[in-house]
Task: structure prediction
Amino acid sequence: MQEIELKFQIPALALSAVQAELTALDGGHHAPLRLRAAYFDTPERALAHAHMALRVRQEGRRWVQTLKAGGSNTMMRLEDNQPAKAPKARQAVVADLARHLGTPAETALRTVLGWDPAQDPSGAATGLIELYRTDITRHRARVTVGAGTPYEGVVELALDLGHIHAGELNVTVRELEIESISGHPMAVIEASRDWVRRHGVWLDTQTKAHRGDRLARRAAAVDAPPPEAEHATLARPARLQPDSTLDQAWRAALESCLEQISANMSELGTAPAALQQTGYQWRLGLRRLRALARLLKPTRLPFPHAALAHADALYAQLGLWRDAQALAWLPAKIVRKGGPDLPLPYPDMSATHDEAVVALARSGPATTLC
Result:
């Protein structure tokens, strides 16, 4: 099945308001659900490299094995859920690939892991190991969005609070997921706009698996865990077929820009220690988007030109930061050469600090653009 959802990070100061609103919307229909999961991959991270995640999760009294994989765009993902058995007392959780036989997930697992169900029914020979775990409490509510309009749909709001664990390391989870249950997929967009406007949540395209894999890599270090490395996402060419139509081509180009923009924006939103390359790639994605818009301006194609005002503003603000990075060495060199101590030529120096880039990635205009 295709999972249609968007995920958002929640400002710490807005968490209590988000919790209160979700509780009021639910009206006591859903008790908080404890979700404990083990994630599996090969030591070489074959699944992670293919943008897939395999987990076995306890959902209350139920156990489910799930394979998730990238879909046709940043809002859609392949998700295959299959019933699993609870491990026996004092036994480790294990993944059994046979649970995905006869599903679209089977083809993906065969391709990525080299799995041969005839010779290795459970996938034991693929080398899968547990890399990290999650322990989440989920609070849910379902609401109808856009009633009486062409975009009417039912969405589920899921507030996930907890941690990701790998070895001795852990990271906090504080996320709001908005998923389509029925009706028009635009209901997810409309609901998201409302929560962005009222609570300042920001878009995050990084999955728990993405964050967990990084944590597991750090935890596996022989000595002390190294500091988190910078993870910039480079531009990826639009994926086209020889017989692609013009409409398919511009949409693929737009998705290529959005992928670079949203991935680097999500990375910056986590406030990494190093962000120079990530900030640069975010700005590059915005520049590619603006160039695509100029290319398509004379056509009748339904490109979302109205969104470009947000892209232009973000691009300009990131330009101030990039200029400050490039010129940071200049005042000190002038002083060393006997010249005056001159400030950088910006009226608002706060816009040139790294903290301003993180704030920009978390801003309403950045999420609204995406």
Remarks:
- The mean pLDDT is 91.
- Strands lie at 2-9, 33-41, 52-59, 62-70, 76-83, 129-145, 153-166, 169-183, 202-203.
- DSSP finds eleven helices and nine strands in the chain.
- Residues 161 and 210 are 17 Å apart (CA to CA).
